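so the lab meeting is tmrw and i was supposed to have these ready like two days ago... anyway. pasting both below. for each one the top line is the aa sequence and the line under it is the structure tokens. i havent really looked at them closely yet so no promises
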Amino acid sequence: MTRTPTLVLTRPIVASERIARLYDGPVVVSPVLQIVGTDASIRLSGYAGVILTSANAIPFLPDLHGVPAYVVGQETAAACQADVRLVARDADDLVSRVTARGPLLHLCGRETRGDIAHRLSSAGIGTDSVVIYEQRAQDLTEDAKALIENGEAVILPLWSPRSAQLVGRQIKTISPGVRVIAFSPAVAKAWFDETGGDCVTCAEPTREEMLRQVDVAKVG
């Protein structure tokens, strides 16, 4: 009888628990990032809309009903309860497609990619940013570390370059039984740079594609 692989989830706890509920098999949840609010003051008056680049921002947002929003990812779009005008694949896609006159406000984490506010402002769309949460590094649990280093049937999805780096730095070896899936080429590069290890890269940086790759790894 073929053993169902153990899914090791290293996303922040809320996101990991959402994925865990969808997996029919053993799961180990070991977040390497803790999402903590900064208690930043958010004033939306004077802005033509907001930019959201991660679902991690959702717990710290003000009421966005009716507020135009330009977001990265379907997961963020579904959770933000705003008037979503654009759903982009990543930061580059968002910058290239925003057509708002501005000014816009990017509600973001302390660790961001893509330099969105600067690039949009340089393109004539005035954009400010407010850091509303930070991503604090955490250690892998001993169970997660043992599975990655010695597991016989393990699926390890990696969703961000930083999480790929943090996981890579904490392990000594990668078991041949671990199937690593990178959310994007940037994540795959971070994993390779940190570990020298190979991985499968999602064809598109979407939650649906990552779940599809997890299903493929589960039966393959």
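ok protien two:
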Amino acid sequence: MRAVDAPDVVFAVSVHGHRTVRSSPGAEGLRYEIGSASKPYAGLLLAGLARAGRVAYDDSAAACFGTRPPRRVEAITLRHLITHTSGLPALPRDFYRQALPHWTTNPFAGYPAHRVVDAFLGARPRHRPGTRWHYSNFAVSVLGHALSAATRTGWDALMEEQVLAPLGLAGTTTSGAGAGFDGADAVGHAGDGVSEVPPLRIGGFAAAGAVRATPHDMLTFLEAHLRPERTPSLADALRAVRRPVLRRGLGKAHTHTLTWFQHPTDDGPAYFHCGATSGQQAFLGFCPGTGTAVAAVASRRFRRSDAFVPTAYGVLFGAG
């Protein structure tokens, strides 16, 4: 707690189901923007739909939109999108012009869903799908729209039906600030920890970063990965997202599952994902070998010398 300088800070730890939460005053009950830590939720949704036979990992993403896929993107599959191997850039090429004036507040708000889909269908991938790893908010956002099109269900409703409700995540939403929650949403702050930042408006990038959740809901989400059998409807999907699917880097030292970064430990693999918005940060991680899960949040923009992620990472490795 002392290592992280932010108005609201929460470190929530579960060890074999026994929870310990430390927070600044009033912070434990707030709901937080978790940014890119939303991607494991999208990955779990994909795994669940694939298990149910409603989509397949190797379905062409472009074909989900019901038109003849342009040849340039026809080979990009749902699996490529969630594993950042699609060849797409981090963000659409025409994204930055409208985003730059709002870069420190709400850069995504002015780029709606139809523009994300149009940018995908008109994209020229940098690499052949499946050959290189490049982290892409664009790709995961396209995944969300492809799944919605394939199931004929809006993203918010799809997430609620397939992930949030089965896991009992009543304090979690993808619909925006204030939606479906009796408590208060955390207020984001700039890097100085004083200046307030407006709530995130995610535009067409919901699958990549729309989740807002309470610390206890984040722990529930992580605990489900530790004990998949406790959620029968998602048990196979929860196991699937723990399996390694690719390795990259020098000596292929970095391992990834469908949605998680995976690092080796003396107690077996640990899984984690970080996220940040213009005024908030989040860390989600779990280690099956120690029965440990860690959810951490802070209501301040990421800074280059930030101690937040290293501290949360250290808690994950030390809590068991």
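from a quick look at the 2nd one: The first strand starts at residue 9 and ends at 15. The chain has a mean pLDDT of 95. will dig more after coffe
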